[in-house]
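Researcher: I need the complex structure. Ligand is S-adenosylmethionine. Inputs:
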Amino acid sequence: MTKQILEQNRQSWDKVAHHFNGVDALPSYGPFAKTEDELRLFADMENKRVLDIGYGSGHSLLYMAGKGASELWGVDISEEQRKAAEETLSNLTPKLYCAPMEEDIGLPKEYFDCVYSIYAIGWTTDLAQTFQLIYSYLKQGGRFIFSWDHPLYPHVRSQNGKIYLHGSYQQEETEVYGAFKGEDAPMVIHKRKMSTYINELIKAGFTIEAVIESEVSSNFDFAEGEVSDRYYSLYKARKFPTTMIIKAVKKG
Ligand SMILES: C[S@@+](CC[C@H](N)C(=O)[O-])C[C@H]1O[C@@H](n2cnc3c(N)ncnc32)[C@H](O)[C@@H]1O
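Model: Output:
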């Protein structure tokens, strides 16, 4: 079953990859969320070895190169994303792998100063295995930083501007999106609670340094935010965080 989900998602990501060129990439942590320029979670990246989980079009890795990272590595399930990332990073020498994040593909252990993931981690079919692998890639003292939809956000819907709870936050289940980005690209996603993310990090051995339920970025201070029922809207984001950001450390 897991293999089927991964294969389905892989094919669909190949189809929608072109919608994600430079979208959900650092310094952005997610829609309307505070940015890395505001939060400064990464600190000094000079000469650091970094690994991007779900690198997409490679723009976050490009950002890391700009911050002086010495080695750029990444894993993404989609071959189309790899092609896009190779283009984005054409002046650099990244190591880009096309594979599911939940698979041990022999990436070096105890090697990276920082592993990060911007809006990709929630696609994993096996959160425990993914966090264990990430923990194993990090050096002692290495940091793992990721952002994803705030786990309650998919349940926060709006109708004529009235916010209501859709479905059950309690029930952790898979959801099938029949179409994605308006394309015939069915995807299966696992819905998890906030506590599941936190507890799986702890079980993998991490010490959690920060959990951020992001407020709206100051970039939108002067934006109107009219009533909207869209999935991501400034109107909703001002009432409820679109994005959670977690920073954890491998203390050993
Ligand atoms: C919203 S995009 C992330 C964009 C990326 N942060 C950037 O800087 O451009 C989500 C990415 O997760 C990847 N993905 C989805 N499921 C995956 C999995 N199981 N393992 C690895 N990558 C996966 C997709 O191919 C897609 O590139």
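Model: Summary of the prediction. The pocket of S-adenosylmethionine is lined by residues 6, 9, 13, 20, 24-25, 54-57, 59-60, 75-78, 81, 100-102, 118-120, 123-124 (CB under 6 Å).
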